[in-house]
């Protein structure tokens, strides 16, 4: 696929997924599903599908030998032996799951993709375990139906190119209608794209039925639906009102008490973490809600940090305080604390760093930081000021006395100034950067981003970022005049 090519409309996206990005995944999914439909599928036919790809074969055997699937730990060296020992359906499911993970997570995956895939795995385990209560067979089909329920959205975040940035930015706007934003960027909905892929890949009855509300009385479809809802509600907390209602529905569906239903749901969540790790997707484990009370608290704090929202009251208060400090002598530490708090808690910027000129103005060093995962910057972030062979964005903004919003079209021409060392330290994506000046005296550079959650930055945040930088400069200038 040519970089920069836009896709618009359902067929355009189906073609893009099939031809440009995920053809191997589509072929494996199709073949594995076809074998499930044929009454007399043989061990050899399934082995042949998996053996076409040596990497897939080795991964399926690794999963088949895991304690989760093979508690007796009898060594499995061939696909045929795996089918005999752990079952045709299990090997088929492993093949499909491993293909999905490989197809989507081998690139540098966006946070949105990882979160959705983690939720899909969690929902799939919940659905399969509920199906075990009400179905005599087809539990693996229910797992696959839940796993592929958001296939269209997974495919988009996995291979949507620049349009993923466009949609992330649109979804970050306050009060946005998510469905309308998706339609505007893709020319179709995620639901339609999923249904289009299901039809194109011929994924069959349960996957199709799961998207049709008219089939809600089918026990397999009901299990998929409940699994999907549990996977989503768990992100709000195990004790949330929506989870309480779902547990009552689960109890009614599988014929147990509400307490037993809750235990089943929590056990499935624990199992989902094991399943993700077993399938080689350990990076997803941290995104599946934990059932340990202490871990629940930690995860809730992490989600809170991810969903840091601007607080207008804190923002205005910090600006007022800096305004007062500019006209009165104030402590440098207090000025910088007010600056970082205003940008982080007030403007809702997830990571903020002030770097100052140090070592005889030969380098930039991190002086103050705030936000999740920024502690290491205080020791590790050091950047030479003058690098004629590789000029960088920090020196550029200080020299040009200009605040910049990197990652938007207006600043694309300066992208080469975001050097490899900067990317390694700070990651990739949008950020704000501005010079900090006390009158004409160069102090350092202020940096801010929202990469904890991967959300796009907003215009109002950039305006606040510029205002805070200017006011802090006035505060520091006032100090030098009185010093």
Explain what the structure shows.
The chain is an alpha+beta fold. A six-stranded antiparallel sheet has the order 3-2-1-6-5-4, with helices on both faces. Helix 6 packs parallel to helix 8, helix 9 packs across helix 12 and helix 19 runs antiparallel to helix 23. Keywords: Kinase, Transferase. GO terms for molecular function: kinase activity. Pfam families: HDOD. InterPro entries: GAF-like_dom_sf, HDOD, RNase_Y/CdgJ.
Shape: elongated
Task: Determine the fraction of residues in helical runs and give it as a percent range.
Answer: 55-70%
How many individual helices?
23
Number of extended strands: 6
Q: Which stretches are poorly predicted, pLDDT < 50 over at least 5 residues? A: none
Rg calculated over all Cα atoms:
26 Å
Tell me the distance between the termini.
61 Å
Mean of pLDDT: 84
Q: In which order are the strands of the major sheet placed?
A: 3-2-1-6-5-4
- Level-2 CATH architecture of the domain at 312-482: 2-Layer Sandwich
Q: What top-tier CATH class of the domain at 312-482 fits best?
A: Alpha Beta
CATH superfamily of the domain at 312-482: GAF domain
Portion in strands: 5-15%
Largest sheet report: 6 strands, antiparallel
CATH topology of the domain at 312-482: Beta-Lactamase
The secondary-structure class comes to alpha+beta
Q: How would you spell out the order of helices and strands? A: HHHHHHHHHHHHHHHHHHHEEHEHEHEEH
């Amino acid at each position: 696929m040519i970089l920069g090519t836009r896709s618009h409309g359902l067929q355009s996206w189906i073609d893009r997924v099939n031809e440009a990005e995920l053809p191997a995944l589509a072929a494996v999914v199709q073949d594995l599903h076809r074998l499930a439909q044929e009454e007399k599928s043989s061990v050899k036919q399934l082995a042949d599908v998996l053996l076409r790809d040596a990497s897939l074969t080795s991964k399926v055997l690794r999963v088949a030998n895991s304690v989760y699937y093979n508690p007796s730990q009898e060594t499995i060296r061939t696909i045929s032996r795996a089918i005999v020992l752990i079952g045709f359906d299990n090997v088929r499911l492993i093949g499909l799951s491993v293909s999905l993970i490989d197809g989507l997570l081998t690139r540098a995956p966006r946070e949105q993709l990882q979160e959705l895939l983690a939720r899909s795995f969690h929902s799939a385990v919940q659905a399969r375990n509920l199906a075990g209560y009400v179905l005599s067979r087809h539990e693996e089909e229910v797992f696959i139906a839940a796993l592929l329920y958001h296939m269209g959205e997974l495919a988009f975040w996995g291979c949507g190119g620049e349009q993923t940035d466009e949609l992330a930015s649109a979804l970050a706007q306050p009060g946005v209608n998510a469905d309308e934003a998706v339609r505007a960027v893709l020319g179709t909905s995620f639901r339609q794209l999923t249904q289009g892929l299901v039809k194109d890949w011929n994924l069959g009855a349960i996957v199709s039925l799961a998207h049709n509300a008219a089939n809600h009385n089918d026990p397999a479809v009901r299990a998929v639906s409940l699994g999907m809802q549990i996977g989503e509600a768990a992100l709000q907390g195990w004790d949330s009102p929506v989870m309480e209602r779902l547990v009552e529905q689960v109890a009614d569906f599988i014929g147990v008490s509400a307490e037993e239903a809750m235990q089943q749901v929590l056990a499935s969540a624990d199992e989902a973490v094991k399943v993700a790790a077993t399938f080689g997707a350990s990076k997803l484990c941290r995104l599946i809600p934990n059932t340990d009370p202490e871990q629940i608290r930690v995860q809730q704090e992490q989600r809170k940090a991810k969903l840091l929202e601007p607080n207008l009251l804190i923002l205005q208060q910090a600006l007022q305080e800096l305004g007062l400090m500019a006209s009165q002598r104030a402590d440098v530490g207090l000025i910088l604390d007010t600056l970082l708090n205003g940008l982080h808690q007030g403007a809702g910027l997830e990571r903020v760093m002030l770097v100052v000129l140090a070592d005889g103005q030969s380098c930039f060093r991190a002086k103050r930081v705030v936000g999740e995962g920024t502690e290491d910057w205080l020791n590790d972030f050091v950047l030479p000021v003058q690098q004629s062979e590789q000029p960088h964005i920090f020196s550029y903004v200080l020299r040009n006395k200009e605040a910049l919003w990197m990652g938007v079209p207006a600043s694309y021409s300066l992208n080469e100034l975001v050097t490899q060392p900067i990317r390694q330290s700070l990651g990739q994506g949008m950020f704000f950067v501005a010079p900090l000046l006390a009158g004409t005296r160069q102090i350092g550079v202020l940096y801010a981003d929202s990469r904890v959650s991967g959300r796009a930055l907003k215009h109002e945040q950039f305006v606040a970022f510029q205002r805070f930088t200017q006011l802090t400069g006035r505060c520091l200038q006032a100090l030098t005049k009185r010093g």
